[in-house]
């Protein structure tokens, strides 16, 4: 009996993961699970590059815009719900596609969740006050000093994640990264990582053009509607924070758009830094023919089942 396979499509933002995931879903007659935590929220369509209506009809997608920004939704909730779904899907399918740019959520499914020590609430309160008084840059610098490994992985523009790492590090006296992935959880499926890459100049150009396209599609209006809720965790992300600064007359619109591009490029760089440490990823160039990529994946699955 063939082993069940989760195809995890990974790569930097704007590289074409959705296109490949749909091609894989069609080829293997299966469904797609999104592990992009920004795309969970129904109010955030344009700024998170949610697949188009046409793309969503080409293959069945799960965990796309299924939550509201006003709901509490954690990586633990995601892992629990996806594992229940995988148990159902794998009853009928040999292969399921996982796609997304949120490494924490991909790892939660493949490796299981990490266990962290208790945190002193006073530390969190102090860090939140520092965020208000000094800005996120102060917290970023401390995180870099305390845990350079996690600094290279985390979305540095998300204050909740930066504060979470700092509070664990300060409470325990150990880097946040030292608590991660100590014990891999045994899963009932194998995971084949499928990576897409390109030269840095190409990635950065694709990011810049995507941001321009988002603005043309109405990102400014979408962000304006969300501005009253800017303190919510879901909105602590690139593409919205910069426009909130514009609404508050702290910068020009042109500057805000350039900041979105710059911060997205930085995020893509951190994504690749993290992914390239995974020696199990089957890398392909974004311009490779889909047929070539699919054949490499089939060969890998076949070798695993021999």
TrEMBL record:
Q: Which residues make up the annotated site Interaction with substrate tRNA?
A: 102, 124
Region (Interaction with substrate tRNA) location: 36-39
Task: Indicate which residues the UniProt annotation says bind ATP.
Answer: 11-18
Q: Which reaction does it catalyse?
A: adenosine(37) in tRNA + dimethylallyl diphosphate = N(6)-dimethylallyladenosine(37) in tRNA + diphosphate
SUPFAM superfamilies (UniProt xref): P-loop containing nucleoside triphosphate hydrolases (SSF52540)
Cofactor(s) needed, names only, are:
Mg(2+)
**Annotated InterPro entries:** Dimethylallyltransferase (IPR039657), IPT (IPR018022), P-loop_NTPase (IPR027417)
Q: What biological-process terms (Gene Ontology) are attached?
A: tRNA modification
Give me the residues that bind substrate, please: 13-18
Which Pfam families does the record match to this protein?
IPPT (PF01715)
- Domain of life of the native organism: Bacteria
Q: How does it assemble?
A: Monomer.
What functional role does this protein have? Catalyzes the transfer of a dimethylallyl group onto the adenine at position 37 in tRNAs that read codons beginning with uridine, leading to the formation of N6-(dimethylallyl)adenosine (i(6)A).
Family named by the database record: Belongs to the IPP transferase family.
Q: What is this protein called?
A: tRNA dimethylallyltransferase
Gene source species: Flagellimonas allohymeniacidonis
Q: Which gene encodes it?
A: miaA
């Amino acid at each position: 009996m063939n082993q069940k396979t989760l195809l995890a499509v990974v790569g930097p933002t704007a590289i074409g993961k959705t296109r490949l995931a749909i091609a894989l879903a069609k080829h293997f007659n299966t469904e797609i699970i999104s592990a992009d935590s920004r795309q969970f929220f129904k109010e955030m369509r344009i700024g998170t590059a949610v697949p188009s209506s046409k793309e969503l009809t080409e293959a069945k997608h799960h965990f796309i815009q299924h939550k509201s920004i006003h709901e509490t939704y954690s990586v633990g909730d995601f892992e629990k719900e996806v594992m229940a779904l995988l148990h159902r899907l794998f009853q009928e399918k040999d292969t399921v596609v996982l796609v997304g740019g949120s490494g924490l959520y991909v790892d939660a499914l493949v490796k299981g969740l990490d266990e962290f020590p208790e945190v002193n609430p006073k530390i969190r309160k102090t860090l939140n006050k520092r965020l208000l008084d000094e800005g996120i840059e102060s917290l970023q610098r401390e995180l870099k000093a305390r845990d350079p490994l996690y600094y290279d992985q985390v979305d540095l523009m998300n204050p909740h994640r930066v504060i979470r790492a700092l509070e664990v590090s300060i409470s325990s006296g150990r880097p946040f990264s030292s608590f991660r992935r100590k014990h891999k959880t045994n899963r009932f499926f194998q995971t084949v990582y499928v990576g897409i890459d390109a030269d840095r100049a190409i990635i950065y150009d694709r990011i810049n053009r995507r941001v321009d396209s988002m603005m043309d599609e109405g990102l400014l209006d979408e962000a304006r509607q969300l501005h009253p809720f800017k303190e919510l965790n879901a909105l602590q992300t690139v593409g919205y924070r910069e426009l909130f600064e514009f609404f508050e007359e702290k910068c020009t619109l042109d500057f805000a758009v350039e900041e979105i591009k710059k911060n997205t490029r930085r995020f893509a760089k951190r994504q690749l830094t993290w992914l390239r440490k995974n020696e199990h990823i089957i890398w392909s160039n974004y311009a490779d023919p889909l047929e070539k990529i699919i054949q490499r994946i089939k060969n890998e699955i076949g070798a695993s089942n021999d």
